[in-house]
Amino acid sequence: MTARKIRIMSLMAKQEQREVGQLASQLGDLRSRELQQFDMLDRLNRILEQTGTAPREAMTPGQLRTRHFIGSTLVQQLEDMRGRMAETQVQKQEVEADLTHHHQRGRILSDRIDQTRREVNQMVARG
Question: I need a labelling partner for 101 at 20 to 30 A (CA). Which of 3, 9, 25, 76 fits?
Fold first, then answer.
């Protein structure tokens, strides 16, 4: 009975290890996406700063409309990027929590396997 118990717990521990591996991969992808989003946010802010400077000469109504369109589009892109960054941050926190949970679960299973093996070895030594 105890050999079966050890086998079942070993299989459960392997499943937890696979889950940890998958979650670690997801976390890496989310961190990569987060870095890309920070980079894009920085680029958009720099473009907005460059286009936000006042022109040195008078502008035609068409130039003003174009400048307004570009500015409002950049602002919209910045808002969208901040929203995507917030979503990525939430996803990252969820994956980190899952990763911690599965890692702890795997460690507990490993401890239980070791404990059961010690108990079996003690029974064999007595018997």
Answer: 3
> Distance (Å, rounded) from C-alpha 109 to C-alpha 51?
59
Is 106 in contact with 17 (CB distance < 8 Å)? Answer: yes
Task: Give the pLDDT mean for 60-69.
Answer: 88
| 2-126 is a CATH 1.10.287 domain | yes
Residue 60 has pLDDT above 80, yes or no: yes
Spatial separation of the C-alpha atoms in residues 88 and 26, rounded to whole Å: 11
**Residue 30 CB contacts under 8 Å (≥ 6 apart), including other chains:** 88, 91, 92, 95
> Computed from CA positions of residues 12, 14, 19, 24, in that sequence, does the dihedral angle turn out positive or negative?
positive
Write down the residue that tokens 């998958």 correspond to.
22
Q: Which residue is it, tokens 């990763």?
A: 99
Torsion region of 59: left, alpha or beta (phi above 0 gives left; psi -120 to 50 gives alpha): beta
